[in-house]
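Usage

Read records sequentially. Each one opens with the input sequence:
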Amino acid sequence: MAKAIRFYETGTPEVLKLEDIEVGDPGPGQARVRHSYIALNFIDIYFRTGRYPLALPNGLGSDAVGVVEAVGAGVTDIRVGDRVGYLIGPQGAYSQVRVMPAEVLIPLPDGVSDRTAATLMMKGMTAQYLFRQVFPLQGGETILYHAAAGGVGLIACQWARAMGVTMIGTVSTDEKAELAKANGCAHTIVTSREDIVQRVKEITDGKGVPVVYDSVGKDTLAASLDCLQPRGSLVSNGTSSGPVVIDSQMLAAKGSLWVTRPAMVHYIQPRAHMLDMARELFDHVLAGRIVSEPKQVFALADAAEAHRALESRKTTGSTVLVP
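and closes with the structure output:
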């Protein structure tokens, strides 16, 4: 038996229940992983609240690290005792032990601890695909990045600095502004007291930016579009404040703008590509260009409390659960 978080209906954090579950042996192409850390991501809240449909009852979470306990038939590149992480696959990472498709498991290199890796699987790989694939940065650009003190944001700050990119980051408080700057964000905009568009225009001498990475959604859409240069790109990579509705005529009027809503699953496959993405991320970590540790740690049994903290915007950086 193992402990796991399950939920039977969508709703507030209180729907999350800690239960005993049976974990069997892995079948062909599978591996059984005992978790050391489980990462929280805002998408978990979307599933819990029903914004993203999920057959119920179900588990929650798709992002964790741990050690391989057993492998099924046909698994050749993952072995018992390997330290691994994952960020895609079926829901159910909020658990002590689970069986996973071996093809989604990413070996962790020596020199990257489980604790660090727990902040990198989804969040670090998100920074990789946003900066290196969705709108590939070359260095020298000035960009706008919303939620710069969040889990992905702090990694993005460091990645931008490593690439020679000038990052303008939005944050909600002065404390978060200091944290973003300490991680490499060149300019911060405190949205509780500063106008986003006005500050971006000041920083860029009225030119605007070629790309905005916006994980906030509804509340920042108008400002994001107004910060773009003609033919600029809005990367809408999240909707924490609500869904985004785009008027195509408005895109033309504001300068023939581009908008994309990327999903990790379309940028991480096939497996060889996923491993290359992880290798680039881990190289930055091993070289000291990206330093990442959890800012908040909760017990698995306190998953509901962790969700409340994440939703309240009281957290910074990464939040993890310990089984």
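Summary fields computed downstream for this record:
- The chain has two domains: 2-119+293-322, 123-264.
- Residues 30 and 308 are 33 Å apart (CA to CA).
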